[in-house]
Amino acid sequence: MNVFRENDVVCLQVGVKANIITGDEVFIPKDAEGTVVIVHGNADQPSAYEVEFFIPEQNDFALATVDAGLLCKV
Fold first, then answer.
1. Counting Cβ atoms within 10 Å, is residue 66 exposed (0-12), middle (13-18) or buried (19+)?
2. What is the pLDDT of residues 46-61, one digit of tens each?
3. Fewest CB atoms within 10 Å of the CB: 1, 13, 20, 59?
4. Dihedral of CA 11/16/34/49: which sign?
């Protein structure tokens, strides 16, 4: 498992649901790139990450909590 820090750019290995700040839910597809904004759990063995994705169709950002094993380096 890769370990990431805040501000690392990561890539999804599977699609996930995310929430835009307005509360709207969007689907982020596999291979989408995002930025780690929060590391959940122990910094050396995180359980999950809060990842921010840009949604060009809505000109907005969405956040998703992603299990640590579902991300890879860009």
1. buried
2. 999 999 999 998 899 9
3. 59
4. negative
